[in-house]
Design brief:
Elements lengths: L4 H6 L12 H5 L1 H23 L23 H12 L14 H11 L11 E6 L2 H10 L4 H5 L2 E8 L6 H10 L12 H9 L6 H19 L15 H22 L3 E5 L4 H7 L2 E2 L4 H8 L5 E2 L3 E10 L18 H4 L6
Parallel strand pairs: 4-5
Antiparallel strand pairs: 1-2, 2-6, 3-6
Helix pairs in contact: 4-11, 5-11, 6-12
Bound molecules: flavin mononucleotide.
Protein name: Nitroreductase
Organism: Strigomonas culicis
GO molecular function: oxidoreductase activity
Length: 341
């Protein structure tokens, strides 16, 4: 199960797991040692937190106006700003109100306009609406109520092997004349494979990372030469996959708000349980074999990863956008830094 602050909130008595913590150890010298270690860590974090406390914002409100004041000369920006200011994470949905499927379909299709690296489009949007599925998803989502009451759930499923889409993406780009520009040129495929293909146990990625780090530092040492640094190879296929899917998630949240549909993004869930629910199974597992025997198309659970689930629906009475207390944000100076970190 993915550990998250939400899991901790739901189980406040759950001790932080430590590989060496055990009931026996807690009464022993080792137990005392770990307790002291936790104590000092907590003191250090609190101290650091105080030192680095972000500047406090004024009282948050939906009308927080950016310094570049509203301009009627940019109506699209004003429309989008209004959407940004009204989106919120809805925790109480009206279980009776369903989002019309054609509307949801439109929002999902618009979401696919989200950009992805190399236009590889390595994510999928799995929609759940049946009661039984929502009940199972609710259990997987640590019992969070909004999962049950929402009209639909959208699971963002990211592909850790999105380089497999490269030939199709290239063909599509050529067919539609998109790649007629000099954007990528003939080295496109080679670059994509170099950049993305992790190889078995991510071994190629490690090798490429070392090569690119070595080459880049060499180039930096002699930066007067015309050489160009190598592209940074992603640390992990999962991180790369999440990066793409989360961008789409952000777009989806705002599209829903524009359509007066409320959303609730979730990261507090048991990813393996959700994968079972949508037919992503561990190859070689009994479930995978059973699915294959039943002629179901069981997909490889290892290839895919779920960074986020979005509950979609209409707010319960008394929870609508007008009545909602909006979440605060730190002062802009916490986020925005010009020129240097
Ligand atoms: C990636 C992500 C995961 C989240 N997971 C949960 C969750 O599991 N449960 C929950 O109640 N809220 C979850 N939230 C909602 C955040 O708590 C909420 O967005 C934040 O407090 C800011 O509030 P706002 O969205 O209303 O502006 C999540 C938000 C994001 C962006």
């Amino acid at each position: 199960m993915r550990s998250s602050r939400f899991a901790l909130q739901l189980h406040p008595s759950t001790p932080h797991a430590h590989p060496h913590t055990s009931a026996a150890a807690s009464t022993s010298f080792l137990g005392l040692y770990y307790k002291l270690q936790h104590f000092w860590r907590a003191v250090a974090i609190t101290y650091r937190g105080l030192q680095e406390a972000p500047p406090r914002a004024g009282h948050p409100s939906r009308s927080d106006a950016p310094p570049c004041a509203a301009s009627s000369a940019l109506p699209e920006l004003e429309a989008l700003a209004a959407v940004v200011h009204t989106r919120y994470a809805c925790r109480r949905f009206d279980p009776q109100r369903k989002v019309p499927p054609p509307l949801l379909e439109r929002l999902l299709r618009l979401t696919t306009r989200s950009p992805t690296g190399y236009n590889l489009q390595g994510y999928h949007l799995v929609v759940l609406e049946r009661e039984a599925d929502k009940q199972a998803a609710c259990v997987a989502c640590l019992g969070q109520r909004q999962v049950l009451d929402a009209s639909h759930l959208v699971l963002f499923v990211a592909d850790k092997e999105c380089e497999r889409n490269a030939p199709a993406a290239l063909e599509l780009g050529l067919d539609t004349t998109y790649y007629r520009s000099t954007l990528y040129g003939p080295s496109y495929l080679r670059q994509v494979y170099y950049y993305l293909h992790g190889g078995p146990a991510n071994s190629m990625a490690c090798l490429k990372r070392s090569v690119s780090e070595f080459y880049t530092s060499a180039v930096n040492r002699h930066h007067r030469t015309a050489k160009v640094a190598l592209i940074t190879v992603p640390e992990s296929p999962t991180a790369y996959a999440w990066k793409q899917a989360m961008l789409a998630c952000g777009l989806f949240l705002h599209l829903c708000t524009a359509a007066r549909v409320q959303t609730s993004p979730l990261e507090g869930f048991d990813e393996t349980a959700l994968k079972h629910l949508i037919g992503l199974e561990e190859p070689g597992s009994a479930r995978h074999r059973a699915a294959a025997a039943a002629h179901h198309n069981a997909k490889d659970a290892n290839r895919y990863t779920i960074p986020v689930v979005v509950c979609v629906g209409y707010a319960a009475a008394g929870e609508g956008a007008a009545q909602h207390v909006y979440s605060p944000r730190f002062a802009p100076s916490h986020f925005i830094r010009w020129h240097r970190f």
